Amino acid sequence: MCMMFRKPSNIAIPDTYFKSLWDSNPDGISIIEIESGVIHKTKDKASARLLLDEMVKRDCFIHFRLGTSGNSTMDQLHGWPVVNGRYNFFHNGVLRTFRGNDQKSDTQQLVDMFNDGSFTLEAIVAYLEEFEQGSRFTLYDRETKELITPDCAEWHTAKLPCGNDICWSNTYAIDAELIGLQSLYSKGWSNKSFGGSSSYYDWNDIDDEVVHFDDTPRVSKLSDPDYMEYSILVESLSNDNFDEFQRTVAQCNSKVLALLLKELWSQ
What we know:
alpha+beta; five-stranded mixed sheet; Glutamine Phosphoribosylpyrophosphate, subunit 1, domain 1
């Protein structure tokens, strides 16, 4: 799936967190320094740990990759330039509009569309907020040093052992016990965001009540972005395409997958 988050300056990522993050997302790391805009990338675990140690005093945005499509090369690590190189683009989630292939990930294909079509920042944000509500995105502005988060899926706020809040892009690409499932979702870490207010959701409120409409099972207490993941999973299952279903499962929120399996088991 991937994981991304902003690490404030003078904060170290504990070894337990790094191990969990790398074990769940072992296909590489991208780190962009907020102040300088310098971006570091590596696919090597030891090098990733050293990079994080070097970044302790720096304010950074960090992306751990789990490759579910595309090749496993440095080219697929996030932080792609868009809008004539002014912004670096990061993504976590299941894209609705692109599936990826053996050579290019779904995110790489999306970025290619933005660049080939000469999308402006406003056009990119508008597209994401209309068509990709089930994913998390961040764009780093190389001129203003801002992080921009389109108003799409929720982020999860939790404290590190040192007491500092970190906003994680999900709760399933890391050991959930490390970040705690009691915290509420938030986007408050970003310098700038677009769109309306985000919908907050606490997984502790979930139950397994299932209702049906248009012959599609729906878990009634899923938030809209999580329901979109649920719908994509149901759609891929109904297409009788094992490869597509396998790719979708690999990128899906584990709790959404568990609810679908429970629904199928009950039928």
